[in-house]
Amino acid sequence: MQIVHGAIEVIFDVVVGLPEASPLSVVISLFMYGLTGFIVIGYGLSRAGLEWNELVNGNKLPARSYLIVLMLFAGLLPVIAEMGNYVQSFYPITDFWEEVFQSVYQSNLAFFEIVVIAPILEETVYRGIILKGFLQRYKPWFAISLSSLLFAVAHLNIWQMIPAFVVALFLGWIFYKTHSLVLVVFSHASYNGLILLINRYAETPGFSDGGSPFPAWLTFLGVSVVLFGVLIFNNCISLARYYSTNSNS
Q: pTM here?
């Protein structure tokens, strides 16, 4: 996503000469993001031998499952942020990457890039195509781990790789349990949306300044919420499968 965002900025500033905030540049950006996503997903589907409708065919889930994953990823946020702070304590972020991150979060298209386009594109590719293919070949734990590793490496920088890997493990687990692309897109969008809100509108130590440690109680609270979310989500999916089986019998 950072690569696409950077390419669009170069096109506007150097080639077209339009300011990024102009209405025309916004329309062109949305078109380019959509076209890029269509090409990437189409290529992935052709390589995997899948049809478009196979991406969204999954189990019908109760509405509460969406609330549960929202709670789970809200709890995961301080845990992941603390991991990022730990990485930065050993490898301080460079000026180049700091500028890249800020340009993405402060962009006029940040909501569409981070909360809409990135979750749809990335989940379709990494869970809907790659993980789905891996699950047909490998054991679930290995398939989820390998697809998560690929997702992490694709971020191209060490400050996002470890957090992205952990987030992808949860997304992969949710996809494995539900086979629902819609739910993992929602989960990813919720997580990214919370990050965007904090970076844009909240000066929160440990989140928006990067590198500052969290209070121990906040990290503990996040871990507790995640564990609780995993338990009730697993129970929710088990009950949904039970009622679905009984209704069909």
A: 0.78
